[in-house]
Design brief:
Low-confidence stretches: none
Helix content: 55-70%
Mean pLDDT: 83
CATH topology of the largest domain: Rossmann fold
Number of strands: 12
CATH architecture of the largest domain: 3-Layer(aba) Sandwich
Number of helices: 19
CATH class of the largest domain: Alpha Beta
CATH superfamily of the largest domain: P-loop containing nucleotide triphosphate hydrolases
Strand order of the largest sheet: 6-9-10-3-11-12
Oligomer: single chain
Length: 565
């Protein structure tokens, strides 16, 4: 077992331990069911010996009554055992999905790095389902082992050679099945990786469908998805072939083993070592053993797929944090809103110095969009600077509790998505009880959006806000950011999808509503920059100018090119 296997096995063990009661109940009922199944041939053999061979009608009726009781027990044990197993499986999958969502949404971040949203969705659904199914596989495996053990004991009592044949042959057969499951495990892991990749690319293509159509890039996008989908199909077929090959070989081995058991039993009956009823019981037990042995084949396939999925889940749950949250971080009693960057170097940023006074509205213009991205990541503390520090009211952000920091400093990025639910629910998602919701709706121009919808603010919005136009989504997203009423608000290009008249109105409403609150506008929009107190220009990762918007337009060529181009 390699070190890479350990996290996945830990996930598997945790999933089973979390459902210990249901697994134990299901296993107990499954053991009872398999014991009853193994006893059916024995009871039938006794009925034949007493009723047919000896002519004892009373004994025949008695064993038939016993057989009826056994079948009633089989019915109830199967029903309740299957229910316990299914409950354990779906509950384990639910807990894994919850853990994955909590990890992805953790303030420390890091779980989404290098993974498409569709990949994460596939991990939280298909992989979690496969790991949850391990609980049922464990129950079935325990029950099957019980059936084999009871069958072997009964055969030992009938004939030592038959019993030894089963006791010695079964472990060898199970070991061979285990070896056969290894290729399936490897190919199943590849299958899930390729399927997740295809799901992620498909989700991204659907999300950007309007953009693709606008630039005429549909053929290239279709070709890319066709290639990735073909890779996924190839991996799926390889996994299916591995599973079919495993099932075929296991069936052949199982049939050969059972034929050997029947052959030995027949020879013993021919020599008179066992009676007619015992021969019938032995043959029926040999046929019964097909069930447990076939179930072991299914169990090994489920375990192989579960291990592959558990490894993928472990990668997400064990992903390193993008930032570290201090265990005893500083508390924020009262936020004035003074924001300061001291010699910040991160990604494309180089020794950036910037200070925003409490209540000030400052614009930040970037010649390179990468500078804006790097600045937003540092301000939101989704990453920490390689050098320098970011401070809020004189306190380094790295010493603050993440939850309090993000309540005080809200970074609303350009590509903020809406959620499924009503328009009002989207706007008030982060709003407190005294939040200026109506003022935020007006200032952002969302009141015009509300007026055009059939049910106003109660109109349902589809996932990611796709039922709204781009401009409408931007206004609602801005309303949500304003309604949060954060002490420090950082906005990134909030008006790129609206017309000039609406943009001017949004700029004026923003200035009015945020009066006296610290606001940072990372934008190249002249309309928004016109309402700022001053503007800072970032070029090649460094602050190269800082002044009022009007003066920079007239006096700085680089600034003029960035905002008026």
């Amino acid at each position: 077992m390699s070190k890479a296997d350990l996290p996945g096995r830990h996930v598997l063990r945790g999933a089973v331990r979390g459902q210990r009661r249901d697994v134990a109940l299901g296993a107990l009922l499954g053991m009872g069911h398999q014991t009853g199944e193994a006893l059916v041939p024995v009871v039938i053999g006794l009925a034949i010996d007493e009723g047919v061979v000896d002519g004892d009608v009373g004994g025949l009726l008695m064993w038939l009554a016993v057989l009826a009781v056994v079948y009633v027990g089989l019915s109830y044990s199967f029903r309740f055992g299957a229910r316990a197993g299914e409950r354990a499986s779906v509950t384990a999958a639910h807990h894994l999905r919850t853990a994955l969502v909590e990890r992805v949404l953790a303030p420390e971040g890091g779980a989404c790095e290098g993974r498409l949203p569709g990949e994460l969705a596939n991990t939280a659904t298909e992989d979690a389902k496969r790991v949850g199914a391990v609980a049922m596989a464990l129950i079935v495996g325990i029950a099957a082992a019980t059936g084999l053990a009871v069958g072997a004991i009964v055969l030992l009592r009938m004939s030592v050679p038959l019993g030894l044949l089963v006791l010695l042959g079964t472990p060898l057969l199970l070991w061979l099945v285990h070896l056969l499951s290894k290729p399936l495990e490897r190919r199943s892991e590849t299958e899930q990786e390729r399927a997740a990749r295809a799901s992620g690319v498909a989700a991204d293509l659907v999300a950007g469908l309007r953009v693709l159509k606008g630039i005429g890039a549909e053929p290239a996008a279709v070709a890319r998805y066709r290639r990735i989908s073909q890779d996924s199909l190839t991996a799926t077929l390889r996994a299916a072939r591995a599973e079919a090959w495993q099932n075929g070989v296991v069936t052949m081995l199982t049939g050969s083993f059972l034929a050997l058991v029947a052959l030995v039993g027949g020879r013993l009956a021919a020599r008179g070592d066992i009676g007619l009823g015992e021969l019938v019981s032995a043959v029926a037990l040999a046929l019964f053993l097909i069930g447990p042995l076939s179930e072991f084949s299914w169990v090994y396939a489920e375990l192989a797929q579960g291990r592959a999925s558990a490894a993928r889940i472990a990668e997400v749950l064990g992903a390193g944090h993008a930032v570290r949250a201090p265990a005893d971080g500083s508390a924020l009693d009262r936020v004035e809103g003074r924001l300061r960057l001291r010699g910040v170097s991160y990604d494309s940023l180089r020794a950036v110095d910037l200070e925003v006074a409490p209540g000030e509205t400052v614009g930040v213009v970037t010649v390179d969009p990468a500078d804006a991205t790097a600045l937003l990541r540092c301000l939101a503390r989704r990453a920490d600077p390689a050098e320098g520090s970011v401070e809020l009211d004189g306190t380094d952000l790295t010493t603050l509790r993440l939850a309090e920091l993000r309540a005080a400093v809200l970074v609303a990025e350009h590509d903020a998505d809406l959620f499924e639910g009503s328009l009002l629910e989207n706007i008030t998602a982060a709003a407190g009880p005294d939040a200026p919701v109506e003022a935020a709706v007006t200032a952002s121009g969302t009141d015009e959006v509300v007026g055009t919808l059939p049910k106003g603010a109660d109109t349902e919005v589809t996932a990611r806000g796709r039922s709204l136009s781009g401009g409408q989504r931007q206004r609602v997203a801005l309303a949500r950011a304003l309604a949060a009423d954060a002490a420090v608000l950082v906005l990134h290009e909030p008006t790129t999808a609206v017309d000039a008249v609406t943009e001017a109105r949004m700029a004026a409403g923003l200035k009015e509503l945020r009066a006296g609150r610290t606001t940072l506008l990372v934008t190249n929009s002249p309309a928004l920059l016109a309402v700022t107190d001053r503007v800072v220009l970032l070029d090649r990762g460094t602050v190269v100018a800082a002044d009022a918007h009007e003066r920079l337009v007239h006096q700085h060529g680089t600034y003029r090119g960035a905002v008026l181009a």
